[in-house]
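Recap from last week: sequence in, structure out.
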Amino acid sequence: MGITVSKTVYNQLKTQFGDAIGEYIETASPFIEVKSESIREVARFCKELGFDSLMCLSAVDTKGMKVSSSPQENKTQKPAPPKEEIQVVYHLNSTFTRDKIALKVCLDRTSPRLPSVSSIWGVANWHEREAYDMFGVIFDGHPALSRILCPEDWEGWPLRKDYVFPERYHDVEHKRKPSGAEFLDGEKKQ
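Predicted structure tokens:
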């Protein structure tokens, strides 16, 4: 289990899909990079390999983050400029072998879209809706892509780093507590 399994799966994916599979990134939680247009086929293949459970699908906004593509990059080179992308990470699990892998897709922030995997793992339906609702990721082929946490008429994507929270919503003012404000327990939070 772990890195050995991930490398084995990486080699199988690279053989099957060629250039659609990017790098195998060996970190504390290794992951395999996949090109967005190939994620559905790669996911289907992973399910055939025995990864029958999508444990989590999450999105990350890397705007302003200093993201290195390898653990050695920051030690041997100047840090790469910040990447401005939305990443979607698929955490897969085999309930038979207890093996785990992670697949990562990097998307352009201006138009983040990729194929839905909800036809492969039913649980992806809600995970994809959350990534859409919070980050604006469009999942092509999703059976009912709509907001799941925010109201349908909400504007913008609340978990994006450049999101500006509205001062008003349906004529109700939103007041934010200033830094250092007291909370109900009387304790000051900084």
